[in-house]
Amino acid sequence: MINLLNFSQKQLAEYFASIGEKPFRAKQLMRWMHHFGVHDFNQMTDIAKSLREKLQLEAQITLPNVQLEQVSNDGTRKWLIGADVANSIETVFIPEDDRGTLCISSQIGCALACTFCSTGAQGFNRNLSVAEIIGQLAIANKSLRQEAGYDMLSANDRIISNVVMMGMGEPLTNYDNVVTAMQIMLDDSAYGLSRRRVTLSTSGIVPAMDKLKEDCPVALAVSLHAPNDTLRDEIVPINKKYPLKDLMAACNRYLEKAPRDFVTFEYVMLDGVNDTVEHAHELLQLVKYTPCKFNLIPFNPFPNSGYATSKPSHIKVFRDILMQAGYVVTVRKTRGDDIDAACGQLAGKVFDKTKRTINRIPIEAI
Ligand code: SAH
Ligand code: SF4
Questions:
Q1: Ligand 2 atom, smallest distance to 110 CA
Q2: Is the backbone of residue 192 left (phi > 0), alpha (psi -120 to 50) or beta?
Q3: pLDDT digit string, tens, across residues 180-233
Q4: Secondary structure class of 160 (helix, strand, coil)
Q5: What is the 8-class DSSP label of residue 193?
Q6: CA of residue 63 to ligand 1 center, whole Å
Q7: Catalytic site residue 96?
Q8: Which residues does a 6 A CB cutoff place in the pocket of ligand 2?
Q9: pLDDT digit string (tens) for 279-297?
Q10: 48-to-22, 36, 133, 220 alpha-carbon distances in Å
Q11: How far is residue 302 from each of residues 116, 268, 306, 340, 346, measured CA to CA in Å?
Q12: Atom of ligand 2 nearest to the CA of 121
C-alpha cells in the first residue's frame, strides 16, 4: 500500500495523474492530511466519493506510532516515536516566548560518529522515510493543538513556528527524503512555514550543501565545533573528507541563495578541548570571509562520553571575544535535560547495523 504521507504536492499530483485523476486533487489532499490532520478518507468531504473509495483500496495515510510523550519541567516536550519493531527516534518541542521550535530527526542513529554526540555513539540503522520525517511534525502539531484546545479545522495561532533539522542523524546524508519533507513543511497547503523558519543543521557534507541551495534553500546551521582541521578531524571525523577550507567555501556559495544572509555556526563547548582563548581567536580568523552568527552549545553529557562541559567562566570569555569582534553570539540554554531532550542527548533506540559501536567504520565508506 502506498503511504500518501511520503509525497510532496508535486509527487501527489503525479500519482493522481497516474490513476486518471485531476492533479488539483493533490492540493485538496495535502490540506486534509497536513493542514487539518485528517487521515480518514471518509472525512474528506470535498473529494468525490468514487475517488475516496479508490484511495481506500490502494493508499493509506499512516503516521509512525508514538511510544511515549514526556514533558520537562521547563515545558520542553519529547516524543519517542517508533520507526519499526527494533528502532525508535525522538522529536523535541521547545516553547519560547516569541516562538515554538520543533527539533526533528532525520535518521535512526548517525554514521558520522562525532565523538561528543550520543546519537553518533549509537551507530547507524537506516534513513527515515518522508512519512517518518514529516510525521514528526504532524504528530507534534496535532498533540500541541489538542493540548491548547485548538480545533484542527479552524485557523488558530501557530504553535510550531520554527522547525530545526537538528535531531538524530545527519540530514544531508538522507538528502532526498529530507528535501521532500522540507518541501511539505514549506507548502502553503500543508504547514506553510517560511524558509527562514526552517533550519537545516549539517556537520558539513559539502556536495549536498551545494545541491540544497538549488533544490530547497532554507536557513543553514553548520556544526563547526573546531577552528582548525587537526582538532576537527578528531572530533567531527567527516572533516577528513570535507576539510574546513572546502566547508567555508561551501557556506559562502550557499549564502548566494539562502533565505537569510548569514550562516549559524554551532560550536559545542568541550572543557579543555576547543574552548580556550586561542581557539576563539583562531575561529575569528577562520570565519573572516563568511557572514555568520555563532551558537555556542554547552556540551550535554551522556554516559561514557569522556568529555566535560566547559566552565561557565570559559564560555563567557569565549563568547565575549567573538562579540567584541562584532558577531552576534548566543549561548544555547540547555532545555529539557531532565527528560534527556537536550542537544546531543537524543538517543531513541537504535539497532546499529554498522556495528560501529564496536567497530568504527572508515569515513570513506559514508
Ligand atoms: N547531524 C547534524 C544535526 C544534528 S546534531 C549536525 O551535526 O549538525 C544538532 C547539534 O547538536 C549539532 O550542532 C551537534 O553537533 C550538537 N551536539 C551533538 N552532541 C551534542 C552534545 N552532547 N552536547 C551538545 N551539543 C551536541
Ligand atoms: Fe551525526 Fe550530527 Fe551527531 Fe555528528 S553531531 S554524529 S553528524 S548527529
A1: 1
A2: left
A3: 999 999 999 999 999 999 999 999 999 999 999 999 999 999 999 999 999 999
A4: coil
A5: -
A6: 26
A7: no
A8: 110, 112-114, 117, 119-120, 169-170, 203, 223
A9: 999 999 999 999 999 999 9
A10: 11, 18, 29, 42
A11: 9, 14, 9, 9, 10
A12: 6
Q: Cα of 324 to ligand 2 centre, how many Å?
A: 30
Show the domains of the chain with their CATH numbers: 2-60 (1.10.150.530), 65-365 (3.20.20.70)
pTM over 0.85: yes
Q: 103, 110, 216, 343: which is the annotated catalytic residue?
A: 343
Among the bound ligands, name the one nearest to the CA of residue 171: 1
252/319 Cα distance (integer angstroms): 23
- Using CA atoms in the order 316, 164, 219, 152, what is the torsion angle rounded to 10 degrees? -130
pLDDT of residue 357: 53
Starting from the CA of residue 221, give the closest ligand: 1
| Ligand 1 touching residue 239 (CB < 6 A) | no
Place of cell 577562520: 286
In b/e form, how buried is each residue of 198-208, taking b as 16+ CB within 10 angstroms? bbbbbbbbbeb
Using CB atoms within 10 Å of the CB of residue 155, give its burial: 0 to 12 exposed, 13 to 18 middle, 19+ buried: exposed
Residue 90 among the catalytic residues: yes
